[in-house]
Amino acid sequence: MQDQAVGRKIFAFLGEKWASIFLVVLLVVFSLVARNFFAVKNFSNILYFATTYLLLAAGETFVIVTGGIDLSVGFVMGFVGVVSSIVMRDMLAAGNSQTVCMLVGTLVGLAVGVLPGLVNGYLVARLRVPPFIATLGMYGVANGLALNLSEGFPIYFLPTRVQEIGNSFIAYLLPGKAFTFFERPPNLQPGDLRNLIGIIPGTVLVVAVILLLSIFLLRRTKFGQHTYAIGGSKDAAIRSGINVPRHLMGIYVLSSVFASFAGIIYVFRIGVGNFTTFSSSFELFAIAGVVIGGASLMGGRGTLGGAIIGVLILNTLENGLNITGIPAFYRYIATGLILIAAVVIDQLTPERRSTGA
Amino acid sequence: MKRVLGILVVLALLVPAVVFAGGTGEPKAKTYTFAYMSGILDPFMIMIEKGARAKAKELGVNMIVAEYPKAWGPDQQVPILEAMVAKGGFDFLMVVPTSTDALIAPLKKISDKGIPMITCDTYLGDGNYNKASNYSFPLAYIGTDNEAGGYEVGKKLAEMIGGSGKVYINTTNPDVSSVSGRRDGALRAWKEFPNIEVVGIDYNLDNPDKAQAQTAAVLQANPDLKGVFGTNLFSAQGAYRAVVNAGLTGAVKVASWDAGMDQINALKAGQIDFTLAQKPFEIGQLAVEWGVKYLKDKTMIPNKVLRPGYVIFTKDNMDDPDMQQWIYK
């Protein structure tokens, strides 16, 4: 009898922490089988490419917890990237300093990024359009606006500091020679660049701060409690005096703002204003990350910590399989199978069975 | 009232998208009207339109341009094509078929209505319209020889790295004739160098962020990589950015395809070593020129194929005045 109780406890623990355990398993397996996977440079790379997805998934978490969905985030990201790039390019061409261009471009992008959220929120909360349809509409509108503004060409001639900042690291290590913070070590020889190790990309720090604030918002504030309450039961939320339409409005604006941050971070990373191409499916990967992290598409359940783990699983899987050198078409099969296996195992744990999710 | 206001805001946001989707012109009597159906919204397809418009203006021909499909593929292209045909009002069609098979039937229907056409950039079937077949109805195919271009890029990259070492291809789709031609051409060139090892081929689906992540992972797995070939604008953008971030500029040679401004800037900065520029502007010009000849006196393109060729931009020739016309802008 004793053994059974212990077993159940272990299962319960596994169920709760399954996503994290799976991420650790992935890291260990890839470290063993993929040459050069286990390296500071590579972990920095995984985080570097995860930043945009982490932001999209964070916004999506708030929406999904309320029982909604936001399909527009990928194209809102591209739209905001294009808008802020155009502002930066034109201000630079007009002779403004790089710092002013970047600052204004970023602020204009964030301001414009509120609009799709307001429209989504209005449609969902006031006009009772199902979130899937409302945000699918915005998916098309944001895509069309970005293509229209950019005329189908990526936006070039941004301030050079943009991609320098977007690709800077918190610290640099040149093994045996130098260790510096924020700036590359001085007097680098051409051969040194190859050995220079950047420790934690600056963009990751920015995104970490945003994520910590969001975790606080969702877990520790009334806003967060109301978000879960609405997802649990809308009727109960209304009866307990929550202004549900206003709250939902806020949720969709929040999601849009996260997507805008993602768009701006992406511009800083690549130094060009790319519109989101149709086949990118950013929103799908963000939603997948949230669900792998344990959220329910029915609402009421899901955490930002889970979403972060979910996104990291997706990015680690992609990076690790790539490094193993398996041909692309086999990698697609492997990715699909591993993800399905992860969720199936998750569903088998007693924790999930009892909640019936 | 609030509700009405909300609907107005939504409409205001929708209007530009709808206007953008149109972009047609009114046909006039007695002048020819050409219609252009592109394959996807990208700088290359826009350059074909610009070339066609320039020649149309010169020859006094009207141009109708159908909405640009947002993604590559018949499911995106055929509805737009059919809507344009339903509206009608054109005498000649320039089309970039997004599938060698799936576009045969829809285009045949248009051809049967008596509208002649030239396929630009991509072709139907195997591209040989000389031999009688169910896809030999277009007047001609005008486009770059992607396989030959890919071979040239592969060979040049191999020579740059001294004929030995690891190389990698980042491309967009496995199932599109143009980019697979580039890939296969490069692979054929590398077969001639016994000491060259191809460490991988990745497909980024036209997503530059993915192209960069894939190239970064390959660089991590193969720190001794010598060369990368990015087979279009987005692939090249991701590839060179990953090489720059890894601090390997110069140590890893970057070959690129197409000549968008970003690639030219990267060439200037030494982040790309060379890029092959196609001549989309010329493809557009030639299609209109030969289309008018056909409509006037039934003159046909010899052998039903035109290869406008390509030029290769390197750091040495990129500032030549007569190279500037080949930049996509």
Quick summary:
The complex is a heterodimer of chains A (357) and B (329). Chain A has 357 residues and is mainly alpha-helical.
Essential attributes:
heterodimer; A: 357 residues; mainly alpha; ABC transporter involved in vitamin B12 uptake, BtuC; 3-stranded antiparallel sheet; 73% helix; B: 329 residues; alpha/beta; Rossmann fold; 2 domains; 6-stranded parallel sheet; 6-stranded mixed sheet; 10 helices; 44% helix; elongated
Description:
The complex is a heterodimer of chains A (357) and B (329). Chain A is mainly α and 357 residues long. Helix content of chain A is 73%, strand content 4%. Chain A has 15 helices and 3 strands. Chain A has helices at residues 2-33, 40-65, 73-93, 98-126, 131-150, 160-166, 192-195, 202-220, 222-232, 234-239, 244-270, 282-292, 304-324, 328-348, 350-355, and strands spanning 169-174, 178-181, 197-201. In chain A, helix 2 (40-65) crosses helix 12 (282-292) and helix 3 (73-93) packs parallel to helix 5 (131-150). Chain A is globular. The mean pLDDT of chain A is 91. Chain B is of the alpha/beta class. Chain B has 2 domains: 21-144 and 280-308, 3-Layer(aba) Sandwich (Rossmann fold); 146-278, 3-Layer(aba) Sandwich (Rossmann fold). In chain B, 44% of the residues lie in helices and 18% in strands. Chain B is built from 10 helices and 12 strands. The longest helix of chain B has 21 residues, at 2-22. In chain B, 53% of the residues are buried. Classes of the chains: A mainly alpha (357), B alpha/beta (329). Chains A and B meet through helix 2, helix 4, helix 5, helix 7 and helix 13 of A and helix 1, helix 2, strand 7, helix 7 and helix 8 of B.
